[in-house]
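Protocol step 4 of 6: structure prediction from sequence.
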Amino acid sequence: MRISFGRVAHTALLAFAVVSLFGAPARADGEARLLAPSGTLRVGIYPGSPTSMVTDAAGKPHGLAYDLGGELAKWLGVPIDYVRFQRVADIVTAIHDGQVDFTVTNATPARANEVSFSQPVLAIELGYLVPANSPISEIEDIDKPGVKIGVTKGSTSERTLPMKFKNATIVPAESVKVAIAMFGRGEIDLYATNKPTLFEMSDQMPGAKILDGNWGAEHMAIAVPKGREAALPMLNSFVTEERSSGALDTIQQQAGLRGATKAK
């Protein structure tokens, strides 16, 4: 059979164009259908934390979940749709229900029952924030009668800290924004969550201080709905590439993400 050189060249050019626009189709095509079955990657974000989404001085959004979601959408060659929620617990529920395709969150055993996780992206210290002129100067001052510890409703902090403190009271807040207002009304004495969020809060609270030490670490990973485990090897390759290329460092810097360490 005779093969036209012109036809071969034309086919090769088309293939090159597809690869240039969308990345290697053999890698992306099947995983794109699995990770973004609607044809669009739906990324769950919540405002106020650099691990999810914050805005810079120019009003441009950044964040670990926000920017990694954008990077993955480019990798897969699909459009992206950012779906906003008030807190991370709502995003986990939406992923479990198949309403969202992607987020980055703490990969706890409890959440692993609801969603599937990639390998860790990075680790983040957990800590405590106290307002200006607080009598609490170190972690040892916390567990006393009358001390009110604010936590985000549905968070790791809300599930974990009641077992750690026997005398202090745990007070759930609907969101980080609400928690800042609760400080002003004297409804909480300190706030417990990951340190990147605490740094964001302290920027809005003159004189506020993050206590030395930590009460653990979050292991941030990509979360996707159950039933999409076939795409996890590709997600792990994506995470490795983002780390080795320096893209993850850039994302952290742009989001002002402080208090993070490299994932083990």
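Step 5 (inspection) to follow. Residues 50 and 154 are 18 Å apart (CA to CA).
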